[in-house]
Amino acid sequence: MNVSTQVAELLDVLAARFGTTAEYLWATMVRHHVIEGWLQVAAGGGLILGGLVAGGFAYRAHQAVRRLIDLGRGTGETGYSWDARLRDTKGCRTFLLCVFGGLVLIGSGIALTAGLQQILIPEYYALQEILRVLQ
Fold it and tell me: How far is residue 78's CA from residue 60's CA, in Å, rounded to a whole number?
């Protein structure tokens, strides 16, 4: 018995269990994978937008701290050099922002790629799901 007949028999058994036809079940499985693909694309886009928003907040926070330091420098009330402290941590902040940005980019790329594949070839993923049941 080859794989294609096993898949057809399994699809018929699943359709009988759900009280429908194999053709309707196949169309439903394909639509399910298209919808799942769109959800993954939306998740990837959300990751990109979230990363941009977080980067914008980090930039604005850095500007606010710089402005506070400039205000404190004018009054001369504190003997602590915040300016020197910020210069010392600039490399660390840049590294952390690059790591965060890289992780967001990699995660969104994976989600977008997987989602687009499910949108473009949903039959492959539906067949893969049936073959997983066969094993």
Answer: 24
Report CA-CA distances (Å) from 62 to 40, 43, 121: 33, 28, 45
Output DSSP code: residue 19: T
The confidence score (pLDDT) of residue 75 equals 54
Domain with 35, as residue range(s), is 3-134
Q: What pTM, to 2 d.p., does this model score? A: 0.69
- Domain count of the fold of the chain: 1
pLDDT in tens, 110-122: 999 999 999 999 9
Residue 119 contacts residue 37 (beta carbons within 8 Å): yes
SS3 call for 41: helix
